[in-house]
């Protein structure tokens, strides 16, 4: 006895058990519908799609006893309208809405991932500017230290006999310095130490933000990844190359 010899009642019962036990999904039911006219007729049975509706799209909330009369009346009207519509059409409508909600959630996830990437890049740019500013500050301190060291050497050389021209230049250099060399050198050394510590802190934060950026970019790639779209795009890109190979 082949499968085609089974009566419709038995086929309907098999399909009902499959839908009730989650062994038969809407895709399977659609594939059966195009397999033969008989299966196409049996797959349109309202009980099958009602079972799929209750399984895949369960009611989110039940009307409570404290709900208002107008709300309960609206729910009753919606239930009556749903009863008049074929369960397959109702399933299709809910499935399309579910697809829209999934697409919106995916877009939100992409926007959030992009926002995290942009914020991380902004933070990296700020850290780069801070490190550059501290570097310029340290460079200026080193230059001033070099000038003060020349003033110190010139003040020591004034006590030693030198030609008049050299002596005049060193005296002029010492007179131009209006601050205490020793105290200023001490301040500049402290400033250099602070700058180095600050740059080290910025570098540490920069490396951490760089790791975060890599993680955020990977998360963005995962959020943007869509198997069907990517495979379709890659197929379009590789199609001319494949044609050229065939022509060769």
UniProtKB/TrEMBL annotation:
This is F-box domain-containing protein. Keywords: Coiled coil. InterPro entries: F-box-like_dom_sf. Residues 59-84 have a biased composition (Low complexity). SUPFAM superfamilies: F-box domain. The keyword Coiled coil applies. Residues 110-151, 199-226 form a coiled coil. It comes from Panicum hallii. It comes from the Eukaryota. The keyword Coiled coil applies. Residues 59-90, 227-248 are annotated as: Disordered.
């Amino acid at each position: 006895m082949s499968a085609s010899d089974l009566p419709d009642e038995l086929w309907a019962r098999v399909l009902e058990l499959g839908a009730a036990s989650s062994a038969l999904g809407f895709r399977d039911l659609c594939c059966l519908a195009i397999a033969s006219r008989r299966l196409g007729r049996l797959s349109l049975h309202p009980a099958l799609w009602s079972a799929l509706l209750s399984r895949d799209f369960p009611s989110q909330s039940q009307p409570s006893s404290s709900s208002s009369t107008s709300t309960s009346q609206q729910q009753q009207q919606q239930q009556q309208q749903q009863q008049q519509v074929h369960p397959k059409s109702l399933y299709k409508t809910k499935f399309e809405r579910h697809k829209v909600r999934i697409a919106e959630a995916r877009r939100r996830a992409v926007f959030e991932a992009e926002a995290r990437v942009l914020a991380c890049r902004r933070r990296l740019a700020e850290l780069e500017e801070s490190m550059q500013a501290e570097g310029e500050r340290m460079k200026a301190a080193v230059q001033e230290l070099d000038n003060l060291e020349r003033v110190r050497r010139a003040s020591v050389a004034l006590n030693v006999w030198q030609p008049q021209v050299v002596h005049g230049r060193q005296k002029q250099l010492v007179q131009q310095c209006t601050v205490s060399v020793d105290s200023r050198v001490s301040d500049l050394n402290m400033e250099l130490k602070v700058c180095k510590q600050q740059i080290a802190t910025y570098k540490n934060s920069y490396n951490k933000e760089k790791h975060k950026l890599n993680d955020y970019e990977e998360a963005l790639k995962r959020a943007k990844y869509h198997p069907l779209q990517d495979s379709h795009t890659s197929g379009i890109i590789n199609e001319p190359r494949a044609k050229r190979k065939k022509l060769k």
